[in-house]
Fold PadR family transcriptional regulator.
Amino acid sequence: MKTTDAASGAAGEAGTSSGAFAADLLRGHTDTIVLGLLRRSDSYGFEIFKAIRDATGGEHEIKEATLYATYRRLEKDGLVESYWGDETQGGRRKYYRITDAGRAIFRGNVAAWVATRRVIDSLLDVKDTKND
């Protein structure tokens, strides 16, 4: 089931579908996802979109409009900076690179994610769910 950054609706009376749940969970981490990709190398907007889609086997996409709003916000906050790439290999592309401040925020967000996941895993007793 492919998810996007928009909720995909409810499934039955018990709650949302797993795709909508995954999209909601990921939506709150768009900044961290983008910063994580930029940690690896500078990238242009559509390249980041494709990297997210490819990393999830096509199961999750963040809308391009959402990503471009994210790039603008991250740049305004000093977490990324942009520059224009070389036009000799096609159209002019705006590249983004992570700043030292962006790296620090990324590390903090990952630490918070790991701590949160540990708590949720313990509350859900994840190690026993395969027997259910």
The first strand starts at residue 10 and ends at 11.
